[in-house]
Amino acid sequence: METPRSPGPPSPRSRSQSPPSNNVPSPVPLSSSLRTYPKRNLPPILSSTYPHGHLSGHPRTPSQQSAFDARKAEILSTMSAEQIEKRYIEVSEKVMEVMEERERQEKDVEEKMENLRMQRERERRVWEKVRGKKEGG
Fold this sequence. Notes:
58% helix
């Protein structure tokens, strides 16, 4: 009687011949029922593909969500895509300026801290010398 053999590791040839797996999800069509949810007051093209409408992964309260939907609908009805893009760039530049300023301030604080550490080390050495002279005589 022959014992069943356990399958070994796949051969390199069989691995290379298998089609590559594509982990990128396909977009949800506009006509899909997944795109519309009764909780949202937006047309299907503007609706979230998530059941609770939290695009960032954090759920909103119903009042926050309705305020968000109203603001989004207002922006999309009053601004063109170019205006939205321009405003986005302006806001992102302001945020980058704030971040760069904070980085500069942080660097300044680090430099001051390093100077104080060095000063403290010099003071410690002086005090050790003074203590050594007092003890020695």
